[in-house]
Amino acid sequence: MKQAIFLVTSLAGLKKLTFKQKVKSLMNDQVQVTILLAMIQFDDYEIARRLVQSIFKAKRLAQLNVVSLADLVADEAGVDVAESEQFKADFEDLPLHRFEATNALERPTVRYVKDGEIVAEVKEDGNQQPLLKMRYADHQPISAAVYEAGNQFGLLTYRDGKLAQALLLNQQGQVVYRFIRHARTVNFAYTMGRTSKLKFTELISEEDDEHRVIYRDSEEQLSYEVVGYQNYDRFDSVYSFYANLLEKIVPADSGLFIDLNDNPELTPYLPQQLIFNY
Questions:
Q1: Which residues are within 8 A (CB) of 87 and not within 5 positions of it... i.e. 6 or more apart?
Q2: What's the pLDDT score for residue 217?
Q3: How much is the pTM?
Q4: What is the DSSP letter of 80?
Q5: In angstroms, how far is the first alpha carbon of the chain from the final one?
Q6: 69-88 core/surface letters (b: 16 or more CB in 10 A; e: else)
Q7: For 29-41, what is each residue's pLDDT tens digit?
Q8: Distance from CA of residue 263 to its chain's centroid?
Q9: Which of 32, 68, 233, 254 is the most buried (most CB within 10 A)?
Q10: Residue 138: is its pLDDT beyond 60?
Q11: Other Cβ atoms within 10 Å of 158 Cβ, number
């Protein structure tokens, strides 16, 4: 193995001890390591880069190649952002309050106030260039623009305070990929004998006709549909999108490392690819 590519889909994955251990082990074996930041919440990229800087010493950092989805699509073809989806920074003349960072993982923050409430927030880098501009309504985020080196590369829209859609832009500010969040409620039923010692203290138990104990629960499961604007591909799963992307960028002599939590969803899309977990 001459190269190794680590697909990172969450900040939690970066914080895993196994991630750090495997990257270090490969670098000790003179393997070139690339960390691909592929989170859909694009404002996580800047946090992720700072996490990487905190995990590895300067000598290793100089040898690591850290790229994001935004880097990969910078020169890809796209379409113009619709007027209704463009981020409007019409709050910048409002009264503001500046807050300096209190630790290495934070950034200076500027909050804009109207009628006594925060209506927007801007996070800045050390040169006072924007990293994230966020608009609020009723104390909930409604839209955001994400930047790197002063250039906008992502647009986020929220519904009920949760991410609804994310637009990934090329260096001309055109949409290359659209990520659409879907949520569905899944119901669970846990059935066990009356003598079972397993109990769910946060759930109310029921009893069926055969005197078995039943616990019922539900949870919201999230998924993302992806639309590509180069040729209008539609991916019904973000993992299908990841697989399509990896097939293009992972050389034959490379090892692919993915978060163990992503394994069940991603591996069926890459049946011929040798995959390692972290």
A1: 133, 135, 143, 144, 145, 152, 155
A2: 62
A3: 0.86
A4: P
A5: 17
A6: bbebbbebebeebeeeeebe
A7: 999 999 999 999 9
A8: 16
A9: 68
A10: yes
A11: 19
Contacts 24+ apart (CB under 8 A), 94-101: 94/119, 94/120
SS3 category, 179: strand
Q: What is the DSSP string of 234-257?
A: EESSHHHHHHHHHHHHS-TTEEEE
Q: 142: which residues sit within 8 A by CB, 6+ positions away?
A: 135, 136, 157, 158
269, amino acid identity: Y
Residues 158 and 164: beta-carbon distance below 8 Å: yes
Mean pLDDT on 201-205: 67
Which tokens in the block code for residue 278? Answer: 């972290």
Residue 268: how many CB atoms within 10 A of its CB? 12
Summarised one tens digit per residue, pLDDT across range 94-113 is 999 999 988 877 899 999 99
Which residue reads 């991630």 in tokens?
19
Q: Is pLDDT at 61 greater than 80 in this prediction?
A: yes
CB atoms within 10 A of CB 130: 18
Of 158, 159, 179, 160, the closest CA to residue 168 belongs to 179
Is the dihedral angle over the CA atoms 225, 277, 268, 70 positive or is it negative? positive
